[in-house]
Write a structure and sequence with these properties.
about 130 residues; alpha+beta; 4-stranded mixed β-sheet; about 15% strand
């Protein structure tokens, strides 16, 4: 529905929106790492472990693995297909349709009772991180 005259501008808006989403995803992982690394979780930053953002070594020599997404609709088909046949847990921060957040699910998966993750905590982390620059 964009006119030819506005096409370049629309493409630039899209690029900016995608770049913002990538930055927000990085901030989300940084917040989670700051809170879960002290209790034994490992942040698999970048492509350290394919399709996994955080892992936790369990006493029985197995691992809990989590793939983190910001929104319920921010997953592409390649990242979902990688989980097929694996025990990788998928967690997304909020539902894109109604903005409901799912921090309680992440707290359940991570079994971190001493460092509960929350939307308020994430917002404070972002303010603190941005304020440092």
């Amino acid at each position: 529905g964009v006119s030819i005259e506005q096409l370049d501008e629309a493409i630039e808006w899209h690029r900016n929106a995608m770049a913002s989403e990538n930055v927000l995803g990085s901030l989300l992982e940084m917040y989670i790492a700051e809170n879960l690394e002290p209790v034994g979780w490992i942040w698999c930053s970048g492509e350290t472990v394919r399709a996994v953002d955080f892992i936790y070594p369990k006493r029985d020599a197995t691992w809990t693995a989590i793939q983190v997404k910001n929104r319920s609709n921010s997953e592409n088909s390649s990242s979902s297909s990688v989980r097929n046949g694996t025990d990788i847990e998928k967690w997304h921060r909020f539902n894109a349709k109604d903005a409901e957040t799912y921090w309680d699910k992440l707290n359940e998966i991570s079994q971190s009772k001493s460092r509960l993750l929350s939307e308020e905590g994430f917002a404070e982390f972002v303010r603190r991180y941005i304020g440092a620059y």
